[in-house]
Amino acid sequence: MRFLSLVGNSFGCSASGERLVSAARDGDLQEAKALLEYNPRLARYSTFGVRNSPLHYSAAQGHHEIVSLLLESGVDINLRNYRGQTALMQACQYGHWEVVQTLVLFRANIHRADYLNGGTALHLAALNGHSRCMRLTLADYIPSIPNFCSILRKRSRNEDSILEFDEGALYEVINRPADGGITALHMAALNGHVESVQLLLDLGASAAEVTVEDGTTIDLIGAGSTPLHYAACGGNAQCCQILIARGASLTAENSNGWTPLMVARSWRRDWLEEILSRRQRCQQRVLPSSYLCLPLMSIVNVARECGWRSRECLPTCVDPCVVCLERKCTVAAEGCFHEFCTQCALYLCSTNSTSTVAHGPPGSIGCPLCRHGIVSFVKLESTKPIVKEVARTSLSLSFCTCSAEGPETASLETPFCKPDFHCARISPLGSSFRSLSCQRFPSMKFSTSLCMKAPETTPSLVPRNADLSLRNYLARCSRSGFRRSTSQTEGRRWLCSFNQSVATGSGC
Predict the structure, then answer these.
(1) I need a labelling partner for 419 at 20 to 30 A (CA). Which of 66, 215, 371, 507 fits?
(2) EC number(s) of the enzyme (predicted)?
């Protein structure tokens, strides 16, 4: 019974992992903290079958505080489930912009693609019309410069534009095709998400990209279709008008020989007849996207360098941020030079949905104090970079390492690792987590020479009769099927390896 209870303890990690999954899914922050303090390796747990980790569940449900907790525990931010989806992809799919903001600040990889259809986080955000998630995902590609929109419209190739930002990298990210050649603009146009279509076009999405025959995506319209074909299939008139105003061709034919007008007729979108007809002469003027945000890159860089979640109490002599009245000012807006804390500036850039301001280029956001157009933020001189922590040890490693340099123990009980070795406690995740110590083996006692396979020249810590009974037990086990070899050395080796597996086999 003692042996069965010992083996049963190895399944405790699975039970704790399920508890952490439930806490991440339900948003129970205190439960998640307690479980991670007990065993930080639980952050790497994943469910059977779908392979979703606690990070996936918390991201899909929008619990950004638990997402931050898991990331600070050292979990891999780009973990994949059985479909190849990361936490960023699931957050974009369900529109949880606060989770997306947290993952972007922790430098999540936005280029990972789904195994089944090749879609990225940008594709999933465009598919469901989550414009805020889209602009946060592209924060590292949209520079905080006043002439950003003019550079994209002119498509200039001079040295000045190249030095200001990498236009080619932004173009590749925006127009990256999934399986079947479908881009994010195709997906947004098909589902009638006007704001997403407008944002993608303002960021340089091509209205002339066409689908291909290869790929796993089922295409009911036909290969060679443009985003206007997909907008005609979806039936949203405003999406069609915006695409036409941005240069989409009314006469483009796909592999079936269908124009966008013919696609609309086949799907009985009669209200698009006049819009998609060449008889229409006048085109509406399209304003810049209300979700375009120029200062986002600047504040994201400051947040990564200096932190963004300060909880320290302010001295009475320090003026707090005028927005939250809780944290000290760390950044200033270029132009009006009004000061804010980093967290309020991030919130302002992430939630803004205003297309025009009193003074500022398209994409600038209005200052909450003077309505001046903010293009970028700069950190104050008093704002210091955060101290980089020592790189954490991989969570897949054991938390107890054995070293032979310590003094020998004279205890009659054998430690929960190799005998005659002392256990060095390590804390790879910082002092905030509970230090894990090596527990002692509850019942088994044996000679030190069994594990090390050394001749019995040293005095045994176990009485002679106990040593003989242990040898007889090993001999019976080898004859009954535990090991087919009749060698006593092999029996001892199996026992040693079993002891090591018990010590390290509970890792998640």
Answers:
(1) 507
(2) 2.3.2.27
